[in-house]
Design goal:
Helix content: 40-55%
Organism: Azospirillum endophyticum
Domain Transglycosylase SLT: 52-342
Protein name: Lytic murein transglycosylase
Pfam family, one: SLT_2
Shape: globular
Radius of gyration: 25 Å
Number of helices: 18
Order of helices and strands: EHEHHHHHHHEHHEHHEEHEEEHHHHH
Domain Peptidoglycan binding-like: 363-418
Length: 422
């Protein structure tokens, strides 16, 4: 059943009261927008609500049971709107057709490098203080800031309450976004930010380094001492909060994220996976060298990544690369943060050549690839269009079977060879 979301304030107040919402004397929420499903996913309540007003009444009861004051809830939802645009963005299935080098070209462009260097100088004293306390380098913090919001220029202009309410009511991951919505209410309850200033992305990521509300509650810091954790407007709070989050994600002070390396002829490419770690001594034994041919330094463990097969650059990545990935679970994202940090401090970016002539496979092509690999017994896993470790290993098995270097890089030429086998 679909119900209209356009109500007058008086009608909605009456509906909420009939649904069991107790009056507190505060202004009732006003809801506007277009039609949407009455109940999108199972909610953590005994019975599915039949309408948005009933859903909102149940949310209010749950929020108050968690210590949210009635006036905090009612102010937050005073002008709430269910956003058709948020629904569209959540339900869309992006193709993810950019190759890693295209992502890096955008995320680590020359202007962003220059802007980052300026930010390092502008906030040098603050960054030095935070680094002394946490061990997270200033250039890493500024790199997160640059990649997440272009140094505060693109933080998102959606109301976080509107976005999370929409996703919690009718999104694909309603339970997840309901918990984020309740966390957002706890932030408002703490007085850190006013509802009208709580803006962010369509998915509810907030502030200059894009924290979800639960991340904010665990990691936001009042670095400037004004009594508010403000990741929207206070640079001390933004950078200190980011440092705390990165440290909590496993950052190891005084260790590098990794480095670009040279692989020897005959390198075992089935070992080039993030899930495979070896002592640096073992990588040295396998012939991995720095880009200038020198022996790898240091101790500990690392993984080798080849994000574009044997014709592209190779990277030896360590625990701090994984710490970056826990901010956003994408190897392209993590490499962008690492490379932006390196470039800002005068270190080189990627020196190897990317196979730029290779076009990315579309989602349909990736599914076709997986289905054809499965038909040959190569065990790629589910045909979901996501090229993960199982699919890369299946590609390696096929490449080995036809005499190619088994680097796991899925290309249009490889898909065509598979099609010719049919």
């Amino acid at each position: 059943m679909r119900v209209p979301f356009r109500h007058s304030a008086r009608l909605l107040l009456a509906t909420l009261l009939m649904a069991g919402c107790q009056s507190t004397g505060a202004t009732a929420p006003v809801v506007s927008g277009t039609a949407a499903p009455a109940a999108a996913a199972a909610q953590p309540v005994a019975q599915q609500p039949a309408s948005f007003p009933e859903w909102l009444a149940a949310l209010r009861t749950e929020a108050l049971s968690q210590g949210i004051r009635p006036q905090t809830f009612d102010r937050a939802f005073q002008r709430v709107k269910l956003s058709e645009r948020v629904v569209e963005l959540d339900s869309s299935q992006p193709e993810f057709t950019r190759q890693v080098w295209q992502y890096l070209d955008s995320a680590v462009n020359e202007k962003r490098v220059q802007d980052g260097r300026q930010k390092l100088q502008e906030h040098a004293a603050l960054l030095s203080r935070i680094t002394r306390r946490t061990g997270v380098p200033g250039e890493i913090l500024v790199a997160f800031w640059g990649v997440e919001s272009d140094f505060g220029k693109s933080t998102g202009n959606f109301s976080v309450i509107d976005a999370l309410t929409t996703l919690a009511f009718e999104g694909r991951r309603a339970a997840y976004f309901r918990s984020e919505l309740l966390a957002a209410l706890r932030i408002l309850e703490s007085g850190d930010i006013a509802p009208e200033r709580m803006t962010g992305s369509w998915a509810g990521a907030m502030g200059q380094t894009q924290f979800m509300p639960t991340v904010f509650l665990r990691n936001a810091v009042d670095e400037d001492g004004d009594g508010h954790r403000d990741i929207w407007g206070s640079m001390p709070d933004v950078l200190a909060s980011t440092a705390k989050f990165v440290l909590a994600n496993g950052w190891r002070p005084s260790e590098p994220w990794g480095q670009e390396v040279r692989l020897p002829d005959g390198f075992p490419y089935d070992q080039a996976e993030l899930s495979i770690t070896k002592p640096l001594s073992e990588w040295r034994r396998l012939g991995v060298r720095d880009l200038d041919g020198g022996e790898l330094g240091g101790e500990g463990t690392a993984s080798v990544l080849v994000l574009a097969g044997h014709r592209g650059p190779a990277f030896l990545v360590r625990d701090n690369f994984r710490a970056i990935m826990r901010y956003n679970p994408s190897t392209s994202y993590s490499l962008a943060v690492a490379m932006l940090a390196d470039r800002m401090t005068g270190r080189p970016g990627v020196r190897g050549s990317w196979p730029r002539e290779e076009q990315a496979l579309s989602k349909d092509e990736r599914i076709d690839l997986q289905q054809r690999l499965a038909s040959l017994g190569m065990e790629p896993g589910a045909a979901d269009g996501i090229v993960g470790a199982n699919t890369r290993n299946a590609v390696r098995r096929f490449q080995a079977s036809v005499g190619e270097i088994p680097d796991g890089f899925a290309t249009k030429a490889l898909l065509e060879r598979l099609r010719q086998r049919s």
